[in-house]
Each structure stands twice: as C-alpha cells, then as structure tokens.
Design brief:
By secondary structure, the chain is of the alpha+beta class. The protein has 5 helices and 10 strands. It has a 4-stranded antiparallel beta sheet. Strands 1-2-3 form a 3-stranded antiparallel beta sheet. It starts with a helix and ends with a strand.
Length: about 180
C-alpha cells in the first residue's frame, strides 16, 4: 500500500522509528513524504496514512476489565475522571476505552510518546457524549490543531488523530486514509 502511494518498489522501502518509537517510512534511504501509523489489539488492527501532517491511530478490543480505578487515576484528567466515576458497568468500560483510544491516537500523532502526561489534557466533553469528531490542541504544542475522530463500535474502540495543515500548505486536498 505504501509503495503504491509513494510510487516505489518494495526493495526501495524501509522503516525506522523516532526517538519515541513512532514509525516512519524511508524510500531509497530518504524520509518518505507521507505519515502513517499502526495499531492492533486482539483481532482488530488499524493502519492510517496521511499525505501531509502527522497522524496517529489506536484500537482497543473492548474486553472486560476487572478494575479500572488505578488506570483512571493515572491516565485521565480530572473532568474525565469525574465522568468515569459517574458511569457504571458496561457504560463505564465503553467510556474508558473511547477516551483512552482518543488520547493514545493524539499522543501517537504528536510523536513524543508518553512524554505527554495524559492527565494534562482532556478529550472534549462532547466526544464523551457521542460526538464523533472534534478539534483538539495539546499542551506540548498548543499552536498545532488535531482533528480527532472516534471510529469505534460495540466490538472495539478506535480513534484517529490527524494534524490540521493550514490551507496554504494543503496541496492536493487528499484526505487521510485508513484500513
């Protein structure tokens, strides 16, 4: 898929990782002009590509969790913690996975790993109430806007985060793709 997009042969394509583990493609030893990201959990996988700007994805199998309280305290901002505290049973687990995949997609898109304290930013409350898309800014780079999308369903939670590129830099108008 990448070689088709980059018009290269498989033998020209290789991969590397940033200091924080984000994968990138090389064509003939040079950075490819495309961003991609990969995630998998259980029987589910997600691959996304963007012709410009950074991209991140996350997918999580909606498996039952015995105790989420420690994860909630360590991973979520105060408003998110309050929303999770008021939810019960399967609703709590669904919200937990939705919020976590959105946070993870944003962190992966930014490419700085868990150097971002996930308690330092909050997923917009509208996303907790069912909105499927919004714009977000992260504290590590407040000038960058990210388009965040909730892609999940009842079997898995999934999210996509794409850096918003100013119109003057947008080029061909292509949208990010995922599979």
């Amino acid at each position: 898929m990448l070689c088709r997009e980059l018009d290269c042969g498989n033998e020209e394509l290789s991969f590397g990782t940033s200091d924080h583990g984000k994968p990138f493609a090389l064509v003939g030893g040079l950075p490819a002009p495309v961003s991609f990201n990969v995630s998998h959990s259980g029987r589910h996988g997600l691959i996304a590509m963007a012709p410009r700007g950074r991209i991140g994805v996350d997918v999580e199998d909606r498996k039952a969790r015995r105790d989420m309280d420690d994860d909630i305290r360590l991973l979520f901002a105060p408003g998110e913690q309050a929303g999770l505290a008021s939810a019960e049973g399967s609703t709590k687990a669904e919200l937990f996975y939705n919020l976590w995949t959105m946070k993870e997609a944003l962190v992966k898109a930014a490419g700085v790993g868990l150097r971002i304290d996930t308690t330092s930013f909050e997923i917009p409350p509208a996303m907790s109430r069912g909105a499927t898309s919004c714009l977000v800014r992260l504290p590590v780079a407040p000038s960058v806007r990210w388009r965040l999308e909730n892609l999940g369903n009842r079997r898995y939670a999934a999210a996509l985060a794409v850096e918003e590129v100013p119109a003057a830099d947008a080029g061909d108008g292509l949208e990010p793709r995922f599979a």
